[in-house]
Amino acid sequence: MIRLDHVTFHYEDLRMEFDVAVAKGEFLGIIGPSGSGKSTLLNLIAGFESPAAGHIFIANREVTASPPAKRPVTMIFQDNNSFAHLDVWTNVALGLSPSLKLDADQRALINSALAATGLEAYARRKPGELSGGERQRIAIARALVRDQPVLLLDEPFTALGPKLRQDMLDLVVALHKSRGLTTLMVSHHPEDARRAADRTAFIANGRILAIAPTAELFAAARDPEITEYLGL
Question: DSSP letter string over 66-104?
Fold first, then answer.
């Protein structure tokens, strides 16, 4: 579904290089120290960064030179990117049509996404009237109406408390399974990968040092960098 072939990227004095393949329907967790290249990997896949060399493929199509809008990808960031002056319904609708010119089917799709994320009762409230978890649900609902096969999450729940973060993660996992998504999630919390990911990749110094089934990576972290990071 997703393949990066000898993709390189330069940030200041750090040269990053990524070779990785993610299968259709897989949930890949991405962990590692701050500044190691985790977010850059997602930005390369989404098209927000351009590689210095190499090739990026999504769904058997090369997208290396394609702009973000032409890639079958939705990305959710740590900042939920909601518009404070617009109500929840309109914030979600923007993911479907920036012009907000919507037909009946599109309106029904928005209502369905709000119901799926538990926001139906808050449709006419402004983001400032909601909790942090509810605001992050706006971003998830917006991802649903975009209906793209690839979902990228860049530390989306870092600002939430442990219980709320688990609830949001469980919601993402449920949607991942019900929609048959291919999901990549960067997190500073290794337990998020334990809870959600089929496989987990460990990134350090701009490279994937290890990638394995999640339970295997956590149980047999032989690389000293991984061991130190996980506190094993």
Answer: --GGGSSEEEE-SS----TTS-HHHHHHTTT-TT----H
